[in-house]
C-alpha cells in the first residue's frame, strides 16, 4: 500500500493539469502547513516567528524545470529579491535553490550565469546559498557546477542524497574542496540501478555519510526528522569531540516542530527549510510521499 501511495503522489506531482489546478485554487487542503505562503512577505513573516523560537532558516522560492530563458530569468530575479528581503528585514536565513529553475535544462552556461548573479548578491550581503540536489539525471552536472562555483565563491553549498549508491564516493571527492554539504535521505523516485531500493539500506548509508563528512572536518547540515539518526549523530559528535559550529540539524517547515524547538533548547543549531511561491505543488507532493502521517493530515483537512 505504501509503495502504491508513493508512486501515485510522485506521478501526481509531475502532472501539469494537477499543477495548474493547484496554482488556480491556492494553498488549500493542508498545503499551507508545509509551504509558508505564495509571497515573499508571507515567508519573511514565517521566518520572523521561527527566529523568535531560536530557529534559523533557509528560504526557497519554489520552482523547477523551466523551459525558457525568460522563466529562468524570472526565477533568478526572485532569488535575488529573496536575498534582498532577507537582508532588509534582518531575519536569520540563507537561500536554497534548484538549478533547473535557473535554466539548467536549457544550457549549463545559462545556469552558471544566473548562479553567479545570485551568488554575487549573496556575497554582498554576507549570505549563503545552498544548491538543492534534484533527480539522478541532474546529479553529475550539479556537482560539476558546484565545483566550478566553489573556485570563485566561498558562500555556496550543495546537497547530497543518501539513497544514491554514488554518494559515498562523491563525499570523498568533494572533501578535496572542503565542501559545505546538506545530507538528506532523498525524495525522488529512482531506479534500483542507481539507488538503494530498501529503506534500511538508505538509513545505513545516511548514517555512514554523515559520520564520513563530519570526520573529514567539513561543515555538515544533517537534514532529517528521524529521531534515531539525530540521537546517533549527537552521540557521534560528542564521542569524537566535534565542535558544535561544524554542524547543524535541518528540518522542513511544518514538520516535527516540537522536535525542532527541543533541539534548540539543548543548544543545537536548527535550520528550517521554508518554501514559498506559487509553484508549490510538486514540493507538496514530495512531502506526502515522504511521510504517511502527512497524507492523513491532508485527508483530515479535506473533510473539514
UniProtKB/TrEMBL annotation:
List the InterPro entries. FAD-linked_oxidoreductase-like, PRODH_bac_arc, Proline_DH_dom, Proline_oxidase
Q: What's the protein called, per UniProt?
A: proline dehydrogenase
> Would the keyword Nucleotide-binding turn up in this protein's UniProt record?
yes
Q: Record's SUPFAM superfamilies?
A: FAD-linked oxidoreductase (SSF51730)
Give the metabolic or biological pathway.
Amino-acid degradation; L-proline degradation into L-glutamate; L-glutamate from L-proline: step 1/2
Record-listed E.C. numbers: 1.5.5.2
Q: Which cofactor does it need?
A: FAD
| One Pfam family in the UniProt entry | Pro_dh
> What reactions does this protein catalyze?
L-proline + a quinone = (S)-1-pyrroline-5-carboxylate + a quinol + H(+)
Q: Does the keyword Oxidoreductase apply?
A: yes
Amino acid at each position: 500500500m505504501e509503495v502504491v501511495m508513493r508512486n501515485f503522489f510522485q506521478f501526481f506531482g509531475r502532472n501539469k493539469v494537477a499543477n495548474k489546478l493547484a496554482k488556480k485554487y491556492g494553498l488549500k487542503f493542508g498545503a499551507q502547513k508545509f509551504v509558508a505562503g505564495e509571497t515573499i512577505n508571507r515567508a519573511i513573516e514565517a521566518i520572523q516567528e521561527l527566529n523568535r523560537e531560536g530557529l534559523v532558516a533557509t528560504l526557497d522560492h519554489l520552482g523547477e524545470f523551466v523551459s525558457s530563458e525568460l522563466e529562468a530569468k524570472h526565477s533568478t530575479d526572485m532569488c535575488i529579491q529573496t536575498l534582498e528581503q532577507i537582508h532588509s528585514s534582518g531575519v536569520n536565513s540563507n537561500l536554497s535553490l534548484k538549478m533547473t529553475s535557473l535554466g539548467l535544462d536549457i544550457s549549463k552556461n545559462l545556469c552558471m550565469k544566473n548562479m553567479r548573479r545570485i551568488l554575487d548578491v549573496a556575497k554582498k550581503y554576507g549570505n549563503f546559498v545552498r544548491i538543492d540536489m534534484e533527480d539522478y539525471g541532474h546529479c553529475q552536472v550539479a556537482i560539476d557546477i558546484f565545483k566550478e562555483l566553489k573556485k570563485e565563491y566561498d558562500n555556496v553549498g550543495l546537497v547530497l542524497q543518501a539513497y544514491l549508491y554514488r554518494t559515498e564516493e562523491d563525499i570523498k571527492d568533494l572533501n578535496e574542496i572542503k565542501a559545505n554539504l546538506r545530507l538528506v535521505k532523498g525524495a525522488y523516485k529512482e531506479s534500483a540501478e542507481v539507488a538503494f531500493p530498501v529503506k534500511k539500506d538508505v538509513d545505513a548509508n545516511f548514517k555512514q555519510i554523515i559520520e564520513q563528512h563530519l570526520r573529514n572536518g567539513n561543515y555538515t547540515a544533517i537534514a532529517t526528522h528521524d529521531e534515531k539518526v539525530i540521537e546517533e549523530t549527537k552521540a557521534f559528535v560528542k564521542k569524537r569531540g566535534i565542535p558544535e559550529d561544524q554542524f547543524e540539524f535541518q528540518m522542513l517547515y511544518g514538520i516535527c516542530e516540537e522536535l525542532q524547538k527541543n533541539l534548540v533548547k539543548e543548544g543545537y543549531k536548527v535550520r528550517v527549510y521554508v518554501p514559498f511561491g506559487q509553484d508549490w505543488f510538486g514540493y507538496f507532493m514530495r512531502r506526502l510521499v515522504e511521510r504517511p502521517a502527512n497524507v492523513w493530515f491532508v485527508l483530515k483537512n479535506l473533510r473539514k
